[in-house]
Amino acid sequence: MLSRNSKPICNIALAAGLALLTATETAALSCLPMGPGDVYRIVSEREDAFVVIEGRVSFDEALLPQYSEADPSATEEPIEIPAQVTGLLLGQRMFDQPVEGEIILEAHCLGPWCGSLVSGTRYLFFARQIEGRVVAVVEPCGGFFFSAEDGRAGDTVLQCHQGGACPSQLPDNFDGALIPSDKE
Fold first, then answer.
1. Domain boundaries in the chain?
2. What's the Cα-to-Cα distance from 125 to each of 23, 50, 51, 78, 99, rounded to whole Å?
3. What pLDDT sits at residue 4?
4. First to last CA, the chain
5. In this structure, is the dihedral angle defined by the CA atoms of residues 18, 24, 26 and 31, taken in order, positive or negative?
6. Number of neighbouring beta carbons within 10 Å of residue 130
7. Which pLDDT tens digits describe the chain residue by residue (184 residues)?
C-alpha cells in the first residue's frame, strides 16, 4: 500500500506525547497543544518507519473505546480498529503518492479519556509501518491526527519537510507540567 519513496519518520512520538500529557487519576486531562510541525519534528528525528498521509479515513465509530466506571480496566489496553484510507502519501518532496487501502487505528485511553476520530473525515496523520501493516495511533489529545479539511496541516508539514521553518504550537515553557519518571 505504501511506497518506499516516502521519507521514513518515527515511533517515539507516542511515548513523547503520552509523557507530556500525563495526568493523575484525580486531575483533569490537560493536553499540550502540539501541532503538525511539532509532531513532524519529533518523528523526523527518529529512525523508526513512520509515514505521513493526508486522506479520508473511514471506519466503524462504534469500535472506538468508551470508558466505563463499571469496568475501568476495559480501556487499559489499546484497541485495534480496521479502517480504510484514501488519499496521498508524503513522498520525498510533497504529498504526491496516491494511497488507498486498509490501515489499523490503534485507539488508546488514558484513564477516563479516550482517543476519538470522526469516520469519513479528511485528516493529515502520522502512521507507523509495523510488520507490513500501517498503524495510526488515536490518543486522547489527538497528537497524530490533524484536520486536513482546510489544507493548513498539510502546508505546515510540507514546509517542515522541504527544510523551511517548522512552526510549533507548544508553549515556550512547561511550568506546572507533570512529566512522569521512568523510575516507579
1. 12-161
2. 24, 10, 8, 18, 13
3. 36
4. 41
5. negative
6. 13
7. 443 333 333 333 333 443 333 333 334 556 777 899 999 998 888 878 789 999 999 999 999 999 888 888 878 899 999 999 999 999 988 999 999 999 999 999 988 999 999 999 999 999 998 888 999 999 998 789 999 999 999 999 999 999 998 988 877 665 555 444 444 3
Question: Quick one: cell of 28?
Answer: 483533569
**What letter would DSSP give residue 117?**
-
Class of domain 12-161: mainly beta
Establish how many alpha carbons lie within 13 A of residue 17's alpha carbon, considering only the half-sphere containing its beta carbon. Answer: 30
Q: What percent helix, strand, coil does the chain show, rounded to 5? A: 20, 30, 50
11, 135 contact by CB (below 8 A): no
d(CA 70, CA 161): 46
Q: What's the grid cell of residue 143? A: 497528537
